Amino acid sequence: MNLPIRLRIYSQLPLHIHIATLFISLILALGGAVIWNNYAETTRLMMHTADERFERIADRTSQQLHNLFTPVAMTVDLLTWQQLATATTLEERLHSLPYLREALATVQHLSALFVGYRNGDFFLLRALPANSPLRPALEAPEPARYLVQSVERDAAGAVTGTFLFYDAQLNLLRRDDRPDYVFDPRGRPWYLLARDRPDRVYSEPYLFFTTREVGATLARRTATGAAVIGADLTLEEISMVLAANRFSPGARLALFDDRYQVIAYPEPDRLLYQVKGQAPRLAILSELQEPVLTVLESALRDREQRPARLHPDGFTLDSVGQTWRGQVKTLITQDDKAGKLFYLALIVPQNELLADAVRIRNQSVLITAGLVLLALPITWLLAGGIAGHLKSLINETAHIRQFQFQEPIAMRSIITEVNQLAQAVALMKSTIRRFLDISAALAAEQRFDRLLDRVLAETLALAQADGGLLLLISDDERELQPAAARSRDEANPVTATQFATLSLTDSASHPLIQATQATEPQIRPLTGSEPLADYLAPLTGALAERVGQLIIVPLRNRQEEPVGVLALLKFLTVDTDEGVSPELLAFIAALSGTSAVSIENRRLLHAQKNLFAAFIHLLADAIDAKSPYTGGHCARVPELTKWLAQAACASQEEPFRDFSLNAAEWEELHIACWLHDCGKITTPEYVVDKATKLETIHDRIHEVRMRFEVLKRDAEIACWRQIAAGGDPDALQADLQAQWQALDEEFAFIAQCNQGGEFMSPEQVARVRQIAERTWLRTLDDRLGLSHEELDRKKCSPVEPLPAVEPLLADKPEHRFVRGPQERIEPDNPWGFHLDVPEWLYDRGELHNLCVSRGTLTEEERYKINEHIVQTIVMLSRLPFPKLLRRVPEIAGGHHEKMDGTGYPKRLCCEQMSIPARMMAIADIFEALTAIDRPYKSGKTLSEALEIMARMRDEQHIDSALFELFLRSGVYRQYAEGFLQPEQIDVVRIEDYLAVDREIAALPIEQKRNAA
């Protein structure tokens, strides 16, 4: 019968499992009921006990209040019948000092006794302990222990204030007349309150101004109403009582009045509350910074009732994530008629009240758990042990599934099958971990040669082989080439060069060649007579004395194409049949597949890098080949930049102390150097190679010379015509020679200007324009045989009838080429270019070109030359460089920027450029200055080039620190010895070009030397 899986599992459980489960369930149920009942009863008893403790604390506090107020009240009552109440002068009142002193000494918390009279007189006796805060302000004598403050008013209303200081025996020490002491008791609240009542009155508790203590005033009028007797008493002992009755750490006790002012608190220093700019006062419940007391005050205020009527049997509050149990008790100082009402709040966290109940409950739980453990039968323990081991193995398989291999499996069981399963899981875990470790190591290796050696080393370690050889099929698939070799014998190291390359066609019968076509690893015995032993001689050594085993593993890529072969040599002992186990052979086969993929990936990546490098060199060679005058520039700049970067990395001086380049950054710099002029591929050749001012596709000086030839022929024809007409031959011939000489001189001047070797002065420009005013006669249509583009430009000027008089040199409309929209750079371009773009794309006007003040390039042509860097950045920014090479456009495109921000194309300043970009700027300038293959200039000597660069440094065109490194490291000399002609390498003193200070740096070389 096919039951569902769950039913089949339950039907197979043994009986002792059911019995044990039922027995444990009964124990747990009974134990739980007992625990719950005990906990409920204990909780009830704890709460009842807490209520009783609350009552005792309230009674104790009430008794303390009674003990505090009763002596003071009796003292006040007695004083109403004393002679002091009817005395009219200070002398009469002083007779009562002994009685007042005894009252202050007897009643502990009595602070002062005083009498206010109906006529405004006032008499007060105050104790002055040695530590009284009043003593410094009153300047009391050192022996003084009592102070009498007296105010007398005569019939005319004059006020006499007097302070008298007495020692402990009431001996007068000093009498101070205080004209400013005009205190009138008749305006005080205690006087006004007692004047209209026959019994005692109590003031609200307040903060004594002089002693900063919390207290209250008791007062009572005399029977005749002629005076009011008063006494000040302190309440600080109540706080001490509350602190002594704080029966748990979390308990909160506070005595407060009907205005929620706190009179006593276990921490007396928190009774005072002061707002900035105001006098201190008594804090209310919510100002004690106790959240539960704040909640209590809020609850009392919300009910708009007297606190004594709220929760007479206790209450609970929730505050700060806890439940609190508490009560508010009403305390009366003496009786309901004459006494003062106070309220005592007692609040305790419920978890502290029930701590014993929780402890008893936990003990019951532990006892029940102990009974459960004791009741478990031996069979249950055995089954639990088996289940525990199985569960551990399940967890281990979960760890394997999560690729967690850190902890080894250590398990011992009395069940054989469990041990066997644990060993199998441990072996699987170890195998997978090692396989992943090897795969990760192979994937992380960047260099192809080290990858091959790593593959061989890991496989040797795994197979515990004594040596190995890795052979790869060549790219042309004609040879099997040794790529890596390794031996465990450190005294006999081997390399791949010690093994011969095998031809795939000529050596087809070779075992290693045949192994490339196999799909599974092969194991071959290897003895001295084996032909393969000769080929593996560097590994086998004296094989005659030993028996070897050769493991040949074919390497195949993802397409199952042969990549190579791996040969592992393992020496065996003669008296055993020890060999490679099938499990190890399978693992080696799996590892060989991963190794083959890693090798293939690295070969592909290496091939792609080589292809990319070849494209870079191809582009650079095309740029150099485009112009025969700049050949080698794209190759020389990378070398010079690399040397300068190496000097910066090796420098221990600031600012290059922390400068370094990793492998990826070196590759980035290499690529940027080779591509720094790739934009020149878009620059017209005639602009790059323009050696004279009139050169375009050809040098137009030939056209100008032909015009001069025409003028000379015209002059000769005119001369012969005049001779034929009867003119004087000698005079006409002399005039002809003079015209020819003038034309020759003018052409020679125009030809010299065309070379652009010197600066054109204003006088020279004026002479060019004067010569241009000569005319010649054109008899042929200048629109015949032109392309449609030239015809479109000719339409800008009207057609002249023939013969037409033409100026010798002219700037014609058709000489100007319109700049199209695609040739313009908008201010908000995405590359951040900031360039002044000329109006015309080209201006081939003859006068315009001949009048170029310096060099041979017009403004339009110079912009075209400079535009190559724009095209470089645009072209490189469109290439999907990986993250490690993303700075290639910035480095390659920054070598025409200047440190002061006036360069092109982005007008970057020094801080906006990376150090490699600034290095390339120096390399590009130095190479250009010293190059001898430029048609428009000759190569500078070392001193000339460095002097120019020093001026550029002073003008903040190049980086000062890098130029100093360029000099001090000797990179300039290293480049000169490798690329300059011997005649260019002259004597150089680098001190002449170092910027010692700004003034000396700006001087010519000779003046620099004198200044130094």
Summary of the model, kept short:
The chain has 1012 residues and is an alpha+beta fold. 46% of the residues lie in helices and 15% in strands. Among the domains are: 379-431; 445-608, Beta-Lactamase (2-Layer Sandwich); 631-677 and 857-1011, Hypothetical protein af1432, CATH 1.10.3210; 701-823, no CATH class.
Q: Number of helical runs?
A: 33
**What is the typical, i.e. mean, pLDDT?**
73
Q: The biggest beta sheet, please?
A: 9 strands, antiparallel
Distance between the termini: 112 Å
Per CATH, what is the topology of the domain at 631-677 and 857-1011? Hypothetical protein af1432
Estimated helix fraction: 40-55%
Question: What low-confidence regions span 5 or more consecutive residues with pLDDT below 50?
Answer: 1-11, 306-310, 997-1005
Radius of gyration: 57 Å
CATH class descriptor of the domain at 631-677 and 857-1011: Mainly Alpha
Task: Spell out the CATH superfamily of the domain at 631-677 and 857-1011.
Answer: Hypothetical protein af1432
What percent of residues are in strands? 15-25%
Q: For this entry, what is the oligomeric state of its chains?
A: single chain
Class of secondary structure makeup:
alpha+beta
Number-wise, the strands total 26
Overall geometric form: flat
CATH architecture of the domain at 631-677 and 857-1011: Orthogonal Bundle
